[in-house]
Every structure is written in C-alpha cells, then in structure tokens.
Amino acid sequence: LDDVERERILELLAREGGDKKRTAELLGISLKTLYNKLHRYGVMGDAKELLNFIKWTKARYPARRYALILWNHGNGWLRGNPTDYGSKGISYDEETGNNIDIPQLGRVLAGAGGVDLLATDACLMQMAEVAYEVKDSVSFMVGSEETEPGSGYS
Asked: Which positions ≥6 away from 91 have C-beta within 8 Å?
C-alpha cells in the first residue's frame, strides 16, 4: 500500500509542477502531512530517490526536452555526504541530515540520461565547480551565484 501511495504522491507532484500545497489539497491532506510522507518515503535529500524520480518521470511523461528544478537550501560544491549546512550541496533534509552533494548530482544526471535545463532554485549553486560536475548531462544551467530570498524564484 505504501508503494501505491508513494507513486500517487510523486505522480501528483509531477503533474502539479512540484507544487506541494496543491498536491496536498488534491490528496486531501495537510501540507505538513505531505512533507511527513515525503520524508517517510525517503524523497528528500537522497540522490538515489532523485535518480528514481527523473527516470520515473521520463518513463511516464515522454518528451523531446526535459527541465529539472531543484529547490531547497544550496551551498555550492564540496565532496562528501551527508554534509551539514556549513558544507556544500543541495536539497537538504533537516530531519535526517541528508543532502545531495554536487558530485552525486552529476552522477544522478548522467545515470538519468541528462536533462536539457537544470535550474537550481537554491543559494550559491551557479559555480564553475557545479557546472563542471554536470557539464556532460545538462545543456543549460540556471542558478544563483549569490544567496536567494527564502521564497526562491517566485
């Protein structure tokens, strides 16, 4: 039953463009409950889950072009995972301490067959080191070289 619920949540998230508030409304649950379920299913800050999500999306929604927007805290480049906020990476899960470091991100994108556009809606992600790690799997990259407001791109 958990697998069915997890797939339904991921399907709605993809359909709603990652809008968690709208996804929670469609599921008839609170936003907090949605975050708890995403955490329970290991969706936040896990490179393996990001790879699975990209592959799942490409299989379910074939397209000529793909864009991937990663949102959450970002700290740029450094090897090693899990790292704390003083280190480098993206997509932090505050409860588990997990995050995706930039070499992991490069491996995920390569393993998923790449994307046309990688947008990082997170601080400090438009670095030469980040671009180098994803260069073989991304045609275009958009991000901030500085800190971003809490609301991100919106």
From this structure: 44, 45, 50, 70, 71, 72, 73, 99, 100, 122
For 122-141, write each residue's pLDDT tens digit: 888 999 989 999 999 999 99
Residues 6+ apart with CB under 8 A from 131: 141
Residue 67 pairs in a beta bridge with 117
Residue 35 has pLDDT above 70, yes or no: yes
Nearest to 34 by CA among 12, 56, 3, 53: 12
Would you state the structure tokens that stand for residue 138, as one six-digit string? 């991304």
DSSP string, the chain: -HHHHHHHHHHHHHHTTT-HHHHHHHHTS-HHHHHHHHHHTT-SS-HHHHHHHHHHHHHHS--S--EEEEES-B----S-SS--TTS--B---TTT---B-HHHHHHHHHHTT-EEEEEEESTT---HHHHHHHTTTEEEEEE-SS---TTTT-
Structure confidence by residue, pLDDT tens digits, 43-101: 668 888 899 889 989 998 999 999 999 988 888 775 555 545 445 788 887 666 678 88
Overall pTM > 0.85: no
